[in-house]
Amino acid sequence: MTGVLNRYGWSLGLLAILAGLLIATRIIQPNFGVSGLDSLARAALPFAFCTAGMAIVVIAGGIDLSIASVMAVAGVIAALLMQQMGDASAGLVVLVVLAAGIGMGVINGALIVLTRGPDIVVTLAMLFVWEGVALLILNAPGGAATPWMRELVVGGLTLPGVPAAMTMWVPRAFVVLVALVVIIWLPLRRSKLGLSIYAIGSDQHAAFRSGVAVGRTRIAAYGFAGLFAALGGLSITLSTGIGEPIPGPYLLASVAAVVLGGVALTGGKGGLLGPIIAVFILRTLRLDLTLLSVDPNVTTIIEGTIMVAVVMAGGLLAMRGRH
Known about the structure:
Blueprint lengths: L1 H27 L5 H26 L7 H19 L4 H26 L3 H19 L9 H4 L13 H4 L4 H19 L1 H11 L1 H6 L4 H27 L10 H10 L12 H19 L4 H27 L1
Helix pairs in contact: 1-13, 2-8, 2-11, 2-12, 2-13, 3-4, 3-5, 3-11, 4-5, 4-11, 8-9, 9-11, 12-13, 12-14
């Protein structure tokens, strides 16, 4: 029991905060129920995928400022191809989008390794590059999502032979998120590559002396970030029904969720569970402020203040750890 608390104590604390916020939501809005949970899960889905990708890069000792632009490119590719190729080819479109996301992530990582420039500088430059690519593909919101794929993330879960009253409280968007994160992250976390990602984040020089291919590992980390970013962009298209070429407010939110979720900004520490729970905390907080009829501008100020405070706290803890 002590070992479980030591390992998952931070995540359990975040779950307690999330539970408290959901209870507060029900008190503020007594009608909050199945549809409210579905809306919350769909709103959190792209943030969660973006945060998962950012977490992997941060664990590897880097940061990706272009991740929101990568999401935009993936989203417009999905919307445009789904509109042109039709329902029957939607599965192929998903594979193309995921491959594009991985490719953009690999390009980011390769540029960092080859130029030996700081991650923050290289990815800041690529932010504008990928934003331009998204606008070249679609210069305005457009395209269309395949209807049957949209149904995968809309509504409550239904299982054959199980009463709907038992499963409708579980949003499909949440099931999709959990399934994809488990399928991608757990094998990676336990693989040699996953251990190498943690190693280069903890101490790059020690990892190199231990035989870790630092450059290839860093490129792979950015490739996985691109994969999750592509899933985030795809989820936006499926939720809204169209492609949006302008990057959404995912970058700062993902960094805040990563730090709030217990991932050290210095790298080598953390996982994906805490950051994803942190995403739902931040989304639920925004929902509560909206239900309280707080002015949208004030809501934005409160959200930004919390995010800046979380990021600054993470930076201070990182500096304290180095000392």
